[in-house]
Specification:
- The chain folds into 2 domains: about 130 residues, Rossmann fold (3-Layer(aba) Sandwich); about 130 residues, Rossmann fold.
- The strands form 2 sheets. Strands 2-1-3-4-5-11 form a 6-stranded parallel β-sheet, with helices on both faces. Strands 7-6-8-9-10-12 form a 6-stranded mixed β-sheet, sandwiched between helices.
- The protein is α/β, with parallel strands linked by helices.
- Strand 9, helix 9 and strand 10 form a beta-alpha-beta unit.
- It contains 11 helices and 12 strands.
- Helix 3 runs parallel beside helix 4.
């Protein structure tokens, strides 16, 4: 009798479970079909690979790229080193190529290392465009960003216009091995080379961190107490420089010109802790890079070189440039 009861129980259980599975599958199939009907597959899978993803400047580039990706219906990945690391940067490009993405947007930081990698990737049928930092000797299909030599030239001309008498300049650059940083330094040097009153005393690198920029500023002032001006070529350099000058009570005595318009940089301009900064258009770089890549993938004609606007602003320019600055920062 007990065996019969157990048997009946098993039959009832199996029957009930079968109905549960059947209706569950049917339900998920309906949901899946509905999802497929409402889901539109992105046209392309693109990757933006900067030198460091946590950099505030590059976050602005990312915002512009994501805005364009959303508008154009493409998938955008933002990947790379959290902090500047050349090998990790190169590896990320290789991984993106191995994944057979539709297009890669990256910097051409080192001609020696990036050119062969870019060329090999393009030979595999994956288009690459450079953003912010060009690799002109490579087969990259386009460059979107600042004319970095011209930007350095503008910085040098601004220093000449803003100062009088003998000036001893210390330069803090993001990285010695980065092409765009080299161009910003060279442009600056060429702008001042005819002026005997202005001399470059020393050049140090910050590894694109405000901490290193501050440490190098302190080191320079200890070794070269006659320095009367600083030029910072990456977004965080002027911030680090100004922190040390304020701590040492030298803000009023030393001229500072930096790069970019991060919120902190604008605060430093407003308070008079730095005299000038070179404006770039990171949001526009990101937006136009995605836009250009989509045009390439659709077989449309493009301009190989797309220079975004660059200029120098001072404290007195801020009221006139307020809308433009807020647009770049907040987007």
């Amino acid at each position: 009798m007990s065996r019969m009861i157990v048997g009946v129980f098993i039959v009832l259980f199996v029957t009930a479970f079968s109905y549960f599975v059947y209706f569950s599958i049917k339900s998920f199939n309906i949901d899946s079909t509905q999802a497929q009907e409402s889901y539109t597959k992105p046209k392309y899978h693109l990757v933006l690979i900067p030198e460091e993803i946590n950099n505030d400047y590059w976050k602005l580039v990312e915002k512009g790229a994501r805005s364009a990706a959303e508008k154009l219906g493409v998938t955008l990945e933002y990947a790379g080193p959290k902090q500047a690391n050349l090998e990790e940067h190169l590896t990320t490009i290789e991984m993106a190529a191995a994944a057979k993405v539709d297009g890669i947007m990256t910097q051409g930081l080192s001609e020696e290392q990036f050119t062969p990698l870019i060329n090999n990737t393009i030979q595999k049928g994956i288009p690459i465009i450079t953003v912010d930092t060009d690799a002109p000797k490579s087969d990259r299909l386009a460059y979107i960003g600042t004319d970095n030599y011209y930007a350095g030239l503008l910085a040098g001309k601004a220093l000449l216009a803003d100062t009088e008498g003998e000036v001893n300049v210390a330069i803090i650059t993001g990285r010695f091995d980065a092409t765009h940083q080299k161009l910003r330094v060279q442009g600056f040097k060429d702008a001042i080379k005819e002026q005997e009153r202005v001399k470059v005393t020393t050049i140090e690198d910050s590894h694109i961190t405000r901490i290193q920029a501050a440490e190098k500023t302190y080191k320079i002032l200890q070794e070269y107490p006659d320095v009367t001006a600083f030029y910072g070529t990456s977004a965080l350099d002027a911030i680090g420089i100004s922190q040390v000058l304020e701590q040492m009570g030298k803000t009023e005595d030393i001229y500072v010109i930096g790069f970019d318009i991060l919120p902190e940089t604008i605060e430093l301009l407003q308070s008079g802790k730095i005299e000038a900064t070179v404006i770039q258009k990171p949001y526009e770089m990101g937006y136009r890079s995605v836009e250009t890549m989509v045009q390439i993938l659709e077989g449309k004609a493009i301009d190989e070189i797309n220079h975004t606007e660059t200029k120098v602003i001072h404290r007195e320019d801020l009221p006139l440039q307020e809308n433009e600055i807020l647009e770049v920062i907040q987007k």
